[in-house]
């Protein structure tokens, strides 16, 4: 399907007008190359200025580490991991080796693994950070060509991956809300609703799902004004608060409506970084009851177990899971959700013995 997109290739490249499909392999690599180079330069400028927030257009803010990670503009796994990883320790550089190792551990325990990498804000809204991409009709092409290739490699190794990028690109301008906060590093409340539905629809096909006792949940949409973490770093009063619509989930009990609680004995554990905490944990997580974990409960009819960290959802999150020393007993499914900048910019990809 034609998308009628005008894209301008910058950075010493001739100006080109392209009308084509986002999946057109003849043009997408060159578009991505210019985009990656621009992000790499912006990340280098931020590092030189000793700042971690990069201003985009119309008060859109971006964390410099996502620009640096995408700016690698190359394969980041296998033998290439040592060339691009933020981590110096050799045995903690390759995300492919660590993910496949964890998949084998899950297999040993009889537990299914679904990997849910969260695409970067600049991949879903590239025109808000870079002049190398412009959209005339509200659509943009898929630019994360190396992430897409990596997911194919993972699938070849038996790892199930929920690739969110196509769906996020499709829904990036929804009237109900876009996929990312303008002034925060995390995805939006609407993205939490969408991902929870995608996961819920898939999980319901499992034979064991019907045997889990169900609860009654209700939702209400509430307007909220928040100060995103990136806005907080800048402390710029001109940016102001960001207005978001929260889909708040509550459990219907005999005593009335109560917030969703996590369930340690759930057959599902949600593992990863603060994308699993945002809008759920309150305080610096901006809101309560409207996160992925809450909306998963709404879609499934029962709460999930939660092992999520503020920071790196790769090695630290798996270490927290390993500290339980239960070999994933009672679990049927691990949903491992983390930002894609973890592939090069996190705290590394050490192999962790979760199942012994």
Report on this model:
The chain is α/β, with parallel strands linked by helices. The chain has one domain (28-345). It is built from twelve helices and ten strands. It has a five-stranded parallel β-sheet, covered by helices on one side. A three-stranded antiparallel β-sheet has the order 5-6-7, covered by helices on one side. Strands 1-2 form a two-stranded antiparallel ribbon. Helix 1 (28-48) packs across helix 2. The radius of gyration is 20 Å and the shape is globular.
How do the strands and helices of this protein lay out in sequence?
Elements (H helix, E strand, L loop, with lengths): L27 H21 L4 E3 L5 E3 H8 L9 H4 L10 H15 L2 E7 L2 H4 L20 H12 L3 E2 L3 H6 L18 H15 L13 E10 L2 H6 L7 E12 L2 E4 L8 E5 L19 H9 L4 E4 L6 H8 L10 E7 L2 H4 L11
Parallel strand pairs: 3-4, 3-10, 8-9, 8-10
Antiparallel strand pairs: 1-2, 5-6, 6-7
Helix pairs in contact: 1-2, 8-10
